[in-house]
Amino acid sequence: QVQLVESGGGLVQAGGSLRLSCAASGRTFSRPAMGWFRAAPGKEREFVAAISWSGEDIHYADSVKGRFTIDRDNAKNTVYLQMNSLKPEDTAIYYCTLDFSTKSIMEGLGSWGQGTQVTVSS
Prior knowledge:
mainly beta
């Protein structure tokens, strides 16, 4: 069974930046895709970003394009989410996810971490 542990969340002012990390351990697929979702208060979990093993296939939600960047370090089994120009509407619990492909990631079919809180104040 795979374990995903997120870190890097916190409180930041609007316009600021945060970098989230997610380390995978345990039994994982060979060359898994990884990604991020988020759940704002009172809302369902929504897709944020996904990246393939090679890093050549990357997808973003329209709401974060141009502000967020996903990347990964396969030697460390870690995926990152660099979040710039943060807005109050980015406030949410951010969840790391891992699965076979970016497609299955985007469909929400992967394994999940426990989440890390990101709060953006206005």
